[in-house]
Amino acid sequence: MRRVLGLILRVFSFLFHFPLIAFLLLASCLAWFNGHNLTIGALPWQGPALTYMLFFSALAGLVSLGLALIGRVTLLFVVWNLAVLVALARGYFFSSYVFGPAGTSLGMALLLTFGALAALIGSCLQWRAPRRAT
Question: Which residues, 6 or more positions from 6, have their beta carbon under 8 angstroms from its beta carbon?
Answer without folding.
Answer: 122, 125
